[in-house]
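Render this sequence as a predicted structure.
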Amino acid sequence: MDTELIEHGRHIAEKMLIGNGDELGILGSSEAYKQVWARDSMIAGLGLELCQDDEGHLIHRRSLETLRQFQSQLGKIPHNVGLTNIDDPALVALGGRLGAPANGKRAIADTTHAGCVDSNLWYILGHYYHYRHGHDTDFLRQAWPSLEQALLWLRYQDSNECGLLEVHEAMDWADLFSNRYNVLYDNVLYYAVWKAMGHLADALGFPADEYTRTAEDVRRKINILLWVGPEEPKDWDWVHRERQEWLYPLRRAEVELVVRPFYLPYMGFRDCADRFDTLGNLLAILFGVADARKTGLILDYIHSTGLNEPFPVRATYPVIHPGDQDWREYFRVRNLNLPHHYHNGGAWPFIGGFYVAALIQAGRFDEARYQLAKLVEMNRRGIHQEWEFNEWFHGQSGRPMGFAGQSWSAAMYLFAVDAVRRGAVRVFDPEGGWGLAAASR
């Protein structure tokens, strides 16, 4: 592992990340996505809080304040907030900018993907690690009513009151993909949100037991519904008594799939998907939804399938082709979701950062160092120059295909470097009850 090159990349990543900050908070990238995107900005906060420049902490705080300012009356956190009349090549469908020319320059919330549920999820987690880094109780107390309202909005997304979120199709980070209903990624975050709210409530002197109990209930139900195999024996009497709507899809998965070494990406109405969702499974390891046995199976599967080749790591396996059950014609939008592209099997550096962190969380330190070295080369590779910290890469060729200067690519590189150097994941640490410490309960 070339420590000098890693440090050089860390310096460039921090400079780029700080440079992407503006009056509203952290923008999606220097080249496009020139708004404060809820999920992107909160993931970027994991790196901003690690910057040696104190401006990183302040930029993350501004992102939190901007999102709170535009929270709806029902508690919904906006998909993104940006200034009008700023040229943005990513906004093709909107004419290349937010707002009409006559509106002048002002901040507005974009409603293109207004129903995305992970805005609320990451918003709450963003406050958690803002507090963990700065222990700013005054800021947390000021934000607490907004956090409670954001959580209440999420609870109403559990339409059948099963304890898990029911998510509309393409309504999270994979906003051009056909995951739906009880989605792994969103519900793993939902577990983390309840757990984080318990920590934050305790920090403010509020009762925390309900948050902690609910987190464990979410974790238990994710494992019941989305893991297929002997590692998670089913209590069929409980399912029949408490969650009869789960009987059909669970029985179907048991008969048709028998066993899988990963969590399924979603369970729908009498239906499920048989493919590997990389980010959802990695977050299950990072937060502690997965126990040691499941963690090992997931990470071994990534290695066996070569999902970490040529760069860490591709978003899904196997990819969806035209004619497959989950293929949608909207995958063709902007040429994005063809096989091995974008959400449909493209490789994302920010997911690579979570991969390195999950390896550290699992105690696979040598593999984490090896994958960090590959993540260095990934972020170093550019379309026009070195160290572009590009958005996403073709799943087979490993060539960059997205917009350069991505905040979350740079941020998760910083997070991965920090995890490898410390031999432990910051914020979502065992001392806080995360990772295998949570799963062992």
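Summary. The mean pLDDT is 95. The CA atoms of residues 360 and 424 lie 6 Å apart.
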